[in-house]
Amino acid sequence: MKVKTACTKIVSISLVFTLLTACGSQQSSESGATQTESSSQADQGSEKALPDLIGLENNIEMIIKTLNGPAVLVKQGMQQNDQSTQSGQNNASSQENQSSQESQGQQEGQYTQANQSSQQSQGGQQSQPQTSSQPDPMTTVSQTVDMMHYQWNNLMAAAVKKGAKQELINNFSTALNNLSNTVSSKNKMNIMLAANKVYANIPDLYSLFQPKPSPEIKRVRYYSRSAILNSLASNWKQADSDISNLKSVWELYKNSLGKEQQDMANKLDLSIIELEKVVKGKNLKLVDIKGKVMLSNTEALEKAAESGSKGQSVGEQSGQEQSGRQ
């Protein structure tokens, strides 16, 4: 009897232990699933916010380019999509109109077709080449800045969710508001300087949404452009300060580059030295050309770093898939 009671107790304890273990395993599984889901939602949030960040960067470059200032080429991805969509809509509309005209011509008969042909001939004789008027640069700049306010409104909430410091939010908002106020003055140099001040916050925003490859090349670009613009404005003291900051940021970023980017890095390194010489020599003409060369080198290096980062990501993903199969 005692043996039977002891066995019953042992079985009961075993069942309790099994149930507790199963519950713990289920909770661990649910916790892991929750973390995975949260991570996935965070990634989706970053993907949704990234186009607005890219749009802000593009618009800053467009403002400076519109005013014939030192700018890099605008990223083509979003523009190509817009142009492709617009082109497709235009083609579809053209085909519909052509089809409609053909159908109408068939229904109305030869007489109507003859009239249409005559009208087209007369229209061709009367038409004269028209000269396209260039849009006012200040109007274009003003419209672009207005668009940036909407983009920032979308991006700001996402940046806060990603852990952006209040200082970054305030700095960007203040710089953007200052740009809007400066546009009303219609002073090209002041507008470009104000636009570049907005750009100063772009690297920190990219650190939140797209930390790889390192966005510090954009900080290099900011100080480079600031040195160029302040030199062209004959603000040589500030230009010298910009060169010092540029060299410090560049040294840190240069050490993070891989072997594949060394050739590009060497070109940029030499162009920084060249820019420093002409800034110290207060040579306005050479500052303009040397500055543009240097900005072109930052663009080439950034593209090389992006290509290297994409290749590394593909390699890591392939390795993870192979490990999962094993």
Automatic annotation (TrEMBL):
| Top-rank taxon, per record | Bacteria
- What is the annotated signal peptide range for this record? 1-28
User: Where is composition skewed (Low complexity) in this entry?
Assistant: 86-135, 306-326
UniProt KW Flavoprotein keyword? no
Region Disordered: list its residue ranges.
Answer: 28-47, 78-140, 301-326
UniProtKB keywords:
Signal
This one is known as Lipoprotein
Source species: Caproiciproducens galactitolivorans
